[in-house]
Description:
- By secondary structure, the protein is α+β, with helices and mostly antiparallel strands.
- The protein folds into two domains: 5-74, no CATH class; 79-172, no CATH class.
- 34% of the residues lie in helices and 19% in strands.
- It has a six-stranded antiparallel β-sheet with strand order 1-6-2-3-4-5.
- Strand 3 and strand 4 (138-142) form a beta hairpin.
Amino acid sequence: xTCPKSFGKFGFCxxxxxxxxxxxxxxxxxxxxxxxxxxxxxxxxxxxxxxxAAKPSNQGxxxxxxxxxxxxxxxxxxxxEVLPEDCMAGSTQDTHKKRNRANLARWLMCGLVPxxxxxxxxxxxxxxxxxxxxxxxxxxxxxxxxxxxxxxAMLTKQGGYGRKLLQRVIxxx
Length: 173
């Protein structure tokens, strides 16, 4: 169940993360994707023009609150918001500052719990993360494909998502 490569131009990363987390059927073609967008608009009580006039790169974009609303609506998995753990032991700063200091690459290298799944929001992007029995065996799923630890250099290059600060994290239970 991976996202078709032809959908890469549609910015529906948050919706895709919900599809993976709730184990919903993956849209196989553009007609099914647009039907899914229409269903999501109805669930979230969005204006009909919200995605219609948007460029493909903005079609399907949702906020963190919308992600929570959709997870509640589909009710196919348990979930809880977690504060991303910071790797710096002995830090005396409060939790809010710690959350804002952790970037994606740092969290992937030392903040994961084995055999867990997450929806992660960074600025301007959201994705689904599945962690294996060993914390270093993680996979990131988004509309660009699947990324593994071997892809960390690509994720942390200039402008990559690995450098972005974590905004919010949902653990799927």
